[in-house]
Structures are given as structure tokens and as C-alpha cells.
UniProtKB/TrEMBL annotation:
<dbReference type="InterPro" id="IPR051120">
    <property type="entry name" value="ABC_AA/LPS_Transport"/>
</dbReference>
<dbReference type="InterPro" id="IPR017781">
    <property type="entry name" value="ABC_transptr_urea_ATP-bd_UrtD"/>
</dbReference>
<dbReference type="GO" id="GO:0005886">
    <property type="term" value="C:plasma membrane"/>
</dbReference>
<dbReference type="InterPro" id="IPR003439">
    <property type="entry name" value="ABC_transporter-like_ATP-bd"/>
</dbReference>
<keyword id="KW-0547">Nucleotide-binding</keyword>
<dbReference type="InterPro" id="IPR032823">
    <property type="entry name" value="BCA_ABC_TP_C"/>
</dbReference>
<dbReference type="Pfam" id="PF00005">
    <property type="entry name" value="ABC_tran"/>
</dbReference>
<feature type="domain" description="ABC transporter">
    <location>
        <begin position="10"/>
        <end position="246"/>
    </location>
</feature>
<dbReference type="GO" id="GO:0016887">
    <property type="term" value="F:ATP hydrolysis activity"/>
</dbReference>
<dbReference type="Pfam" id="PF12399">
    <property type="entry name" value="BCA_ABC_TP_C"/>
</dbReference>
<keyword id="KW-0067">ATP-binding</keyword>
<keyword id="KW-0813">Transport</keyword>
<protein>
    <submittedName>
        <fullName>Urea ABC transporter ATP-binding protein UrtD</fullName>
    </submittedName>
</protein>
<dbReference type="InterPro" id="IPR027417">
    <property type="entry name" value="P-loop_NTPase"/>
</dbReference>
<dbReference type="GO" id="GO:0005524">
    <property type="term" value="F:ATP binding"/>
</dbReference>
Length: 280
């Protein structure tokens, strides 16, 4: 929730990201509000990660990115974090030699004065206890992050954003490499978080998307090509064409599985794929 109690939002307008002369993101508009659980999907190289990199100033952005009235384009990453925008990476960036509690304490410390940074266990803040509970990490508070499972590391990273009071959570392939149980727990966690955060999930896992997405934005070649509910994007002819034609960027088997999970006819991919035999 924004400070004036209106729902938080992230509004991207006409975003362009150019690397040398290569246009990776080409005029993207995207508005996501608190209460939604938005998935950002598209074939490899579509510009999904570059879009969230641009929001957090990790890629050079042109256009406008507004969070609750604050323009983010032109701001440095640390300032954007202060505005409440947080992100995770495909490989969790936690401090492996520190415990869960220490990781959370350091993240929370980004909002504290340096002399208050070192705290004893007795002083664990109610907020950190609450975040460990929400992320299912309470039992692991003294466990070193390095020995956590892949899923638990992702949850710790999300927890680190929560204790920083992030209002926007940009999550890059959070369930990649997770077990089925971890996927379900993550889906439930994201559903809970979406009620009072702006949540954007970049994902390739179509089964996860079909189960948890409330809305979907589809990108291809740097542009948004469709947006709507899962059912709406599944029925979209441009999306069908892009997915049926993705055999050029994936193996034929991967494209077939993805098409099937999206509710499309995998055999149509085989026909499309057979015309792109140079890739297969
Ligand atoms: N720092 C960079 N310099 C040059 N080109 C880049 C850079 N970062 C990304 N690109 C290119 O921009 C395009 C979009 O990449 P991006 O990683 O955003 O795609 P994506 O949709 O996230 O794909 P994937 O699903 O494979 O992660 C790709 O062609 C990529 O090679």
C-alpha cells in the first residue's frame, strides 16, 4: 500500500532498452497494481529480464517507469530500492555463510543506522519473526543460508525484500529448479504477497503460471504482444503463432511441452518446427 493508502502500482510507459545498437526492449507499456499476480512470459530473448533490469536501473532505460508517483528512470539502483522496489535473481543472492536470521537482519538493516546493525537474538524484531513465519523459514533461523534448499534460498531472498518493506516485488524465474512441493509453497506465498504488494513474476514454467497467475503479459522480440487472463492469452492468435513458432529458439521437445501446457496443440509445433530444422 502506498503512503496515501491508495493501492500501490508500477506503471511502465514506452520503455526502450538499447544495448549498443541492439533494441532489447522496444516500446513496452506495462501497468501492474497491488492485488494482481502478474506473470511476464515469452520466448527466450523476448526482453523479460531486461525489462525488470530496467526497472531496477540494472539496464539503461528510456521512457517512463513510475511507482506510486515516483519516476524511476534516471534514478540509481539504491534510490529505487528506497522507493520500495525489490527484485530477486535467477540465482538467489543471499549471504551463504550467514544464517537465515543474519541475512534478514542485514536486509532490514538497510533501513537502520549502522550502530544498530548488530543485534542479539533476543532482539529479533517482530517484523523479522513475522517474515520468517510467512516464508516458512522459522525453523531454519539459525541455519546457514548456504545449506538451504534452492527453494528455501528463494524464499529467503523474498523475505529479505519483505523486511526492507518493498512494495514492488520483481521475481525472476522463482520456481526454476524447485521441487513440486516447493513450487506449491511458492505459489501460495506469492498469492499471499500479491494482496498487498505489486508482484511481477518472470517465468517459463507454464504449469505454475496456469495454477497461480491472475494476469499475464506476453512479450516477444522486445514488445508486449498480448495481455489478459491465462484463458485470454491462451486464446490469442498472436500468442499461439509465437509459441507455435518458437521452435527456432528452443528444442522441438521444449516447444511442444510449452505449447501443451499453454493449452495449444503440440502437434502443430511439430509442423512448425519441421520447417526450422536448422535449429533442431
Ligand atoms: N547486457 C546486455 N548486452 C547486450 N545484449 C543483452 C544484454 N542483456 C540482454 N541482452 C540481449 O537482450 C535480449 C533480451 O534478453 P533478456 O535476457 O531480457 O530476455 P528474456 O526474455 O529474459 O529471455 P530468457 O527467458 O532466456 O531469460 C537478448 O537478445 C539478450 O541477448
Amino acid at each position: 500500500m502506498s503512503r496515501d493508502h491508495r493501492p500501490s502500482y508500477l506503471e511502465i510507459r514506452d520503455l526502450r532498452v538499447v544495448f549498443d545498437k541492439f533494441v532489447a526492449v522496444d516500446g513496452v507499456d506495462l501497468r501492474v497494481e497491488q492485488g494482481d499476480l502478474r506473470f511476464l512470459i515469452g520466448p527466450n530473448g523476448a526482453g523479460k529480464t531486461t525489462t525488470i533490469d530496467a526497472v531496477t536501473a540494472l539496464a539503461p532505460a528510456q521512457g517512463s517507469i513510475n511507482h506510486n508517483g515516483h519516476e524511476l528512470v534516471g534514478r540509481k539502483t539504491h534510490k529505487i530500492v528506497r522507493y520500495g522496489v525489490g527484485r530477486t535473481f535467477q540465482t538467489a543472492s543471499v549471504f551463504e555463510d550467514l544464517t537465515v536470521l543474519q541475512n534478514l537482519d542485514i536486509a532490514a538493516g538497510l533501513r537502520r543506522r549502522p550502530r544498530d546493525m548488530v543485534r542479539t537474538r533476543q532482539e529479533v524484531s517482530p517484523r523479522i519473526l513475522e517474515v520468517m513465519e510467512t516464508t516458512g523459514l522459522s525453523r531454519h533461523q539459525e541455519t546457514k543460508a548456504g545449506v538451504l534448499s534452492h527453494g528455501q534460498k528463494q524464499w529467503l531472498e523474498i523475505g529479505m525484500l519483505m523486511v526492507q518493506d518493498a512494495t514492488v516485488l520483481l521475481l525472476d524465474e522463482p520456481v526454476a529448479g524447485m521441487s513440486q512441493g516447493e513450487r506449491d509453497a511458492t505459489g501460495e506465498l506469492l498469492t499471499k504477497l500479491a494482496a498487498d504488494h505489486v508482484v511481477v513474476v518472470v517465468e517459463h514454467d507454464m504449469e505454475f503460471l496456469r495454477k497461480y497467475a491472475q494476469s499475464v503479459t506476453v512479450m516477444a522480440a522486445g514488445k508486449v504482444i498480448a495481455e489478459g487472463t491465462v484463458a485470454q492469452v491462451q486464446a490469442d492468435s498472436t500468442v499461439q503463432e509465437i509459441y507455435l513458432g518458437t521452435a527456432g529458439t528452443k528444442s522441438l521437445e521444449e516447444a511442444k511441452v510449452e505449447a501443451e501446457l499453454l493449452g495449444l496443440d503440440p502437434e502443430a509445433v511439430a509442423v512448425s518446427g519441421s520447417t526450422q530444422s536448422k535449429e533442431n
